[in-house]
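task queued by scheduler; priority normal; single chain, no ligands, no partner chains; default sampling; output format set to structure tokens
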Amino acid sequence: MPEYKAPQRDIKFVMQELLNCEQHYQNLGYEDASLDMVDAILSEAGKFSEQVVAPLNQSGDAEGCHWNDGVVTTPKGFKEAYQQYVEGGWPTLAQSVEFGGQGLPHSLNTAITEMFSSANHSFAMYPGLSHGALATIEAHGSEEQKQMFMPKLVEGNWTGTMCLTEPHCGTDLGMLRTKAELNDDGSYSLTGTKIFISAGEHDLSDNIVHIVIARIPGSPEGSRGISLFIVPKYNVNEDGSIADRNAVSCGSIEHKMGINANATCVINFDGAKGYLIGEINRGLNCMFTFMNAARLGVAYEGVAAAEAAFQGALTYAKDRLQMRSLSGVKNPDGPADKIIVHPDVRRMLLTQKSIAEGGRALVSYLAQLVDIMHAEKDEKKKAAADTKLALLTPIAKAFLTELGFECTSHGVQVFGGHGFIKEWGMEQLMRDTKISCLYEGTTGIQALDLLARKILGSKGEILKPFGAEVTAFCVENSDNEAMQEFIQPIMNFGRDLQKMTETLGMKAMQNPDEIGAASVDYLMYSGYLTLAYFWAKMAKVAQQKLAASDEDKAFYQAKIKTARFYMQRILPRAAGHAACVENGASAMMALDEDEFSF
């Protein structure tokens, strides 16, 4: 299996040169986040991901997790690696100083999250959901709850989960059956079963804090009657120490397509003691804090998968000899040329490279918006950041995971028959990555959220802040001849998106199925256009750097050439999605149910 190397140069390009993180951190009062500090942290994270996390990826997949009478054991080496993760202070990085965190920016933690996920998707998931649990408790929990749970979660000795799905319901959470009955001491007794709970039971941490949705008897049916609870695996004493075992158990672990080294659990609550977070029947509102954090985390997974697939495919393509180049012999001393000379292999490699690097720019931008939400004092700036996040989160989650999965498929394809063989690692990447298109809301759910709830629900208002940013960039560079090949496609596709949105709004008033029929194509179109904007911005930075100096010339030239590839070979895909939207719902809805047969 190819060795993973943390893409330090490109991560620093995005953070420091494209997004000017130094000024961004200064503006928000992150005084400790100097460039020297950022570089040092990134360097250490790279070493940890390469030397500790990555070597467990293939062995963890082969061994998987073990379940025995409710006890889950992680694969060999995982427990020791997690202890090193905790001892290194990685869980505390972007957490509140008040609860033992280092108080560094969320966007810095994002870059580290990508490295860990590229190195070992399964391992990265164990601490990954703790961030959402922390954000939920910090935003909606009582002061007593924060003091009880946050310090241990922050330091990583406890981990967190999100417990939503039940055997009879997936995304339709209003159908849940888990009930929560009030106890005399003000706590609640929860009874029910949750499934697909990532890291729901394991041997890495001393306690697991479940964030659980349930219905209190007498509450309204449907989503309006959902409340949110903290339910620990072990009960907690007033001083924060662990008490007796709570009535929470792992009924089984799933045998899955991928992420085999992460325990995906059936969790049973048999009168388990829990604590209400926020107000009764407002659980989904509180839960969105967790879900939005998780959706951004999954978007990072798409980027991480594209990067890992690109690294593996590139290493192989530079070594594998196969056929002669169509344009003449390139390796006269060998029996054949390296496959990297062949245009179709180039197509796949450049697709991986353009998605990994473009996606990295997008998620890093979103992470800076999260920084603003956490630390900005100007309410107008916070509101603008919140609107952009609301728009771009479903795009990033769905688009980057779909394209990340495509990139892993290209990884298998570049290897040819060897890609289908386990020892090379490419098929594991593909298996592991597919889940990212599914959990925290499938692509279809994200698309409906984007088009129905956010864009049409706001009558297009949600598009304005980010749209104004993109327009301003295009206008600013309208007289720059070197930028026209990047600016013109954005302007053209942007005008078409505006017309498409208006037309869909009119169609939806006549037939609501038009929204569902168009939503995924609309989201993918938006994703391709959004990434085009970030590629144009990266091309401009690269042009400026080349004009100023010959330093790192090859890196910046590659940026411009990859931007050109994206504009010419990837962005045109959006036109196909636009055609599908224009053709409407009629062909999709024409068959009666009984006409679907085999």
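post-processing summary
- Residues 457-588 form one domain.
- The first helix runs from residue 8 to 18.
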